[in-house]
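Support request, priority: normal
Reporter: lab tech (M.K.)
Component: structure prediction queue

Hi team, I submitted a job for DUF58 domain-containing protein from Bradyrhizobium cajani yesterday, and the status page still shows it as pending. I've pasted the exact input below so you can check whether something in the sequence is tripping the parser. The sequence length should be 314 residues. Please let me know if I need to resubmit or if it's stuck on your end.
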Amino acid sequence: MAAENGHTAKEIIAIRRADGESRTLAASLPRLVLEARRIAANVIHGLHGRRRAGSGESFWQYRRFVSGEPSQNVDWRRSARDEHLYVREHEWEAAHTVWIWPDRSPSMAFASKTARESKLERTLIVAFALAELLVSGGERVGIPGLMAPTASRSVIDKMAQAMLHDDADRLSLPPSFVPSALAETIVLSDFWSPIAEIRATLAGLSGSGAHGTLVQVVDPAEESFPYSGRVEFVEPEGFGAITAGRAESWVQDYTARLALHRDQIRAETNKLDWLFTTHATDRSAAELLLFLHAGMQVSKSGARTTTIKAGPAA
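Reply from support: The job had stalled in the queue. We restarted it manually and it finished. Here are the results:
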């Protein structure tokens, strides 16, 4: 059959795996969407409004006319009601584009017994909830290479549909593109890619001067390496397997390599004034959502810092 269809055995396996992943995602999306909306609603309820006076079109408030202002600013209809002159102020238009990249590569499907959900499920919940939160604040949200920026109130549905109909390879890192200087990019991934690939991706995303945040989403087992005895570790993206005779003897080396990898990522983000944090799936998704929202507010204020943390210290 492989010869007749022109596919190698490896290609057939890859096609079947992709089909299985699509079916699994389609089955779980309704639950993930509901959870994302619940979390977003709770966070939105706890946040103060972001409105302020500016050059937008939506009416905000009246204020007293200040001597020296152009007379055309006066709202004569409102001023006719009493002895003072009033100016009609409009809401500040703060809308800009936020690109959200949820890593949907095979390694994100991993979930240990101590995790609340898989890395992929947590990533999608946070991506959906963040999009809902941003759109409610007047921002536009897009997915690099998959969905054009939109301010639609049904942004979660649009994101879910775009993912369901995406038949491209599941990349760990965003495709190459250069966001505008005023855009923000959020990359949610386990970042197990080689540091050279991460560095190249960052160079492209920051080429215009745009800011962003890298969030390493990890399973608790990837933090602590709680294995012992004879264990076979399988690379989920087709790079083979390796067997440890005494897995517990690998802990020290694993911990050192993990710390080095994170230090390398942090060094790259620090150069660009980007944020980097880690988030374990046994922690609250709302915690990460609040961190991301706060990070973007700090970025807008011009006082960006890389000391904010979400979850265990990175």
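The chain has nine helices and ten strands. The chain has a mean pLDDT of 82. Let us know if anything else looks off. Ticket resolved.
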